[in-house]
Amino acid sequence: MCGIVGYIGTKQAYPILIKGLKRLEYRGYDSAGVALISNNRHLNVYKAKGKVSDLEGFAAEKDISGTVGIAHTRWATHGEPSRANAHPHYSSSENLALIHNGIIENYATLKEKLQSKGYQFKSSTDTEVLVQLIDYIMVTNKLDLLSAVQLALQEVIGAYAIAVLEKNNPDQIVAARKSSPLVVGIGEDEFFLASDATPIVEYTDKVVYLDDEEIAIICRGEELKVVDFRNVEMNPEIREVKLNLGQLEKGGFPHFMLKEIFEQPDCIYDCMRGRINVDADNVVLSAVIDYKEKLLGARRFIIVACGTSWHAALIGKHLIESFCRIPVEVEYASEFRYRDPVIDEQDVVIAISQSGETADTLAAIELARSRGAFIYGICNSVGSSIPRATHTGSYIHVGPEIGVASTKAFTGQVTVLAMLALTLAKEKQSLPREEFLEIVKELSHIPEKMKKVLELNHRIAGLSQIFTYAHNFIYLGRGYSYPVALEGALKLKEISYIHAEGYPAAEMKHGPIALIDAEMPVVVIATHNGLYEKVLSNIQEIKARQGRVIALVTEGDNVISGIADYCIELPATLECLDPLITTVPLQMLAYHIAVCKGKDVDQPRNLAKSVTVE
Ligand code: F6R
User: Fold this and answer.
1) pLDDT tens figures, 359-384
2) Which residues line ligand 1 (CB under 6 A)?
3) CB distance 93 to 123 below 8 Å
4) What gap in Å lies between CA 580 and CA 448, rounded to an integer?
């Protein structure tokens, strides 16, 4: 979703801001803009609908001088994608320019009030209302920018990260956050501002993550100052970020998504590093050990998440219930937060989020916390809001995920959930020792087996060409493979815009079978596991209706190869770890179909990487 970048220092701001916007492109956006206070003290705002490159084209002939500026990529909420609605927005006096990520919920009431005072609006956005409100407060009360921002934010209901530039004060940026992320980078005689650390890491590794209701006053040549909305001075913690620049580049791959699919063996290895010790037959997630009474004493676990992370949660439920015999419920965070759920201090809530910023997941955590539940986070993005809002948790350590469609984060989440279930099972002694050891050993072999799956890339690319005609796809799986079917279908929808649905294979008879005809591709996860025979019958049912079956099978399976139209042979593994193997060819299938159809794989239309509004 919207991306924020800011710079103040001794260098020219424009190239830094543009590069920063490009680093944030992965979040998803439809327009971009920049505001700079030029060398001759003009506050220049340039905006364009489309990509950052369109903005560069638009600004090419203009005055882009200045050592202070703010820039933005917009993901439309209020008002269509257009130059007028793009940020930064000027105040009517053109003394202020503001960028915003989030939603001002009471913008209509505030707009009416400002219109009655004579303010006029050029856009349909909630953001323009905020900049006009700050301007109004400044002018009528003769206040400085900081005081006006503080008063304005007390009137605003909603979620936001903002940054404001003032023409009359070119030595300062004022930035604030509530429920949307904002990071300040501290360099030598310069400061950076961004929605996450990716635009900052090439300049400095020192960052401050702003907390809710904090305002940063970033002044040239001074120390960073952070206050709350009531002007109480805060003591910001300066942290070190450890992002390697190579992780933010494509490294020879045509797309981030393909790079991230191929990174999975290393990612899973990194995720398990120091946590699995095969020689000692042990798995340790330190957060589980630290809070084992709380976790083992829980009446039940509730896992909250959205999208792909929700699919990982379904696999987590299966793992925890079968290894630990603890009941687990899985909830969409967006539903959970609004349905007054029965929850109390005997419950443990596990929140799963790659970005650590998903607004609904954060709100679900807040609700569960307020009812006394213990919260465990599983996140990728270090220092993001969710890890800071939970009691404890585990990072998945798969490195930045730039492709909008989640790949390595999903397999990382499943790996952490497997380790969590194993650690608990060991403490609870709920798994027979032989079985525990077998799973631990097999988990440690997953990266090698994933590498074998990646060797199928060319074959899957070839297969993909056959299916670009399709307008619909069905994905079927049972048991551990059902969430994989959902995930495979989601990947295809997101990046190829082909309608796809995942179903538990046996559910097909209860309705979806009506869709099967000679045109319909049906992807069936039919690896060797406890329900193999049942899935085989499901494939027969599809073939009896001329459906085109693409089956994922275990190497050496010569039964399904005689029935299915196409088979993708995968290395054998334990049933409980099968999702870590079967997900990978489905990611590749979606990727190649989207590439064949000429789609923008890394930045699919309408999608945002970090869903910071509900
Ligand atoms: C799909 C995808 C989304 C996210 C969802 C939750 O490829 O990436 O469905 O999984 O928006 O995001 P996080 O995990 O960041 O909370």
Assistant:
1) 999 999 999 999 999 999 999 998 88
2) 306-309, 353-355, 358, 361, 405-406, 490, 494, 611
3) no
4) 12
Neighbours of 101 (CB within 10 A): 31
**3-state class of 552 per DSSP?**
strand
Structure tokens given for 24? 């944030």
**Which residues make beta-bridge pairs with 70?**
6, 35
Burial of 61 (0-12, 13-18, 19+ CB in 10 A): exposed
- Measured from the Cβ of residue 496, the count of other Cβ atoms closer than 10 Å reads 26
Rounded to an integer, what distance in angstroms lies between the CA atom of residue 561 and that of residue 564?
Answer: 6
For residue 386, the ligand 1 atom closest to its alpha carbon is 16
Judge contact between 567 and 600, C-beta under 8 A: no
The Cα–Cα gap between 403 and 596 comes to 17
Beta strand ranges found along 18-95 (DSSP E): 31-37, 43-49, 68-74, 89-90
Count of CB atoms within 10 A of residue 404's CB? Answer: 22
What percent of the chain stands above pLDDT 90? Answer: 89
Residue 613 has, within 13 A of its CA and on its CB side, a CA count of 21
* 146 alpha carbon – ligand 1 mean position (Å): 35
603 alpha carbon, distance to own chain's centre: 13
Residue 88, preceding bond cis, omega within 30 degrees?
yes
Place of tokens 């917009």: 74
**Below-50 pLDDT ranges, the chain:** none
